[in-house]
Specification:
The protein has about 250 residues and is mostly helical. It has one domain (about 55-245). Helix content is about 75%, strand content about 0%. The longest helix is centred in the N-terminal third of the chain and has 33 residues, at about 10-45.
Length: about 250
């Protein structure tokens, strides 16, 4: 296991292996996105309260869900960087921050569009919304901190610590609807019964979209990491050989 862990920390090994992973991720991602979007737009019945607006859920929920994964991912990568000083872990942490910012923006934007119809306002200082906005600023802070520090090792350590601290806000986002009396609805429950509030014809396409967005996240992270590897290892012989071969 430790040998596998050590090999995974090798930028060259990860670059070669991830090139083999991508087709197995891109194809199901594309298929699930197509199926999920068509199902959500054409076959999901209008909600008895929200009407056609319910279809925004199939964009908002997946992006809101995946946006909570970035700080834990960055914290794990940062811890590996601090303890084992693996270059690849820091590369993952670096590229995850801007991706997390984009996913958080998409979650906030889609939520605002949904709220404008349901709540009658684009924004309110609700516990869930405010903590999600704070996450966006924390991600911008991680990106800015890395850009401000010229020393690569110092930047990696500082961003790792900030990422670990940022995980606290993930718990605030998760449990904000339980801790405070907010407009944002609590977590929904799913049931196989057709008489349930969220029957299968509603939640099955949602699950499909969530899996599709998680695969999209995985593909985006791998592609960004591969690009970061080429930038940092550009003087390495294997990168030079790769460039010459192309």
């Amino acid at each position: 296991m430790w040998l596998w862990f050590s090999k995974l920390g090798s930028p060259k090994w990860f670059y070669e292996l991830s090139g083999k992973w991508l087709p197995w991720l891109v194809i199901p991602m594309a298929m699930l996105l197509i199926v999920g979007i068509i199902w959500a737009l054409l076959f999901v019945p209008p909600d008895y309260q929200q009407g056609e607006t319910i279809r925004i859920m199939y964009i908002h929920v997946p992006f809101a869900s995946i946006s909570l994964a970035f700080f834990p991912l960055m914290a794990v990568a940062g811890t590996i960087t601090l303890v084992w000083k693996m270059k690849l872990a820091d590369m993952v942490a670096k590229v995850a921050a801007p991706l997390g910012a984009w996913f958080t923006v998409l979650a906030l934007a889609s939520g605002s569009i949904w709220g404008s119809d349901i709540w009658g306002t684009w924004w309110i200082w609700d516990g869930r919304l405010t903590s999600m906005l704070l996450q966006f600023f924390l991600l911008i802070g991680v990106i800015s901190l890395r850009s401000a520090l010229e020393d690569t090792d110092a930047a990696a350590k500082a961003c790792a610590v900030l990422s670990i601290v940022g995980c606290i806000n993930v718990f605030v986002i998760k449990y904000s609807v339980d801790w405070w009396n907010t407009l944002h609805q609590p977590s929904s429950s799913f049931s196989l019964s057709d008489e349930a509030p969220n029957p299968p014809e509603v939640w099955v396409p949602l699950v499909i979209m969530i899996v599709a967005v998680y695969l999209f996240f995985a593909v985006s992270l791998i592609l960004s990491t591969r690009n970061e590897i080429l930038v940092r290892e550009r003087r390495a012989q294997w990168v030079q050989e790769l460039v010459e071969a192309k």
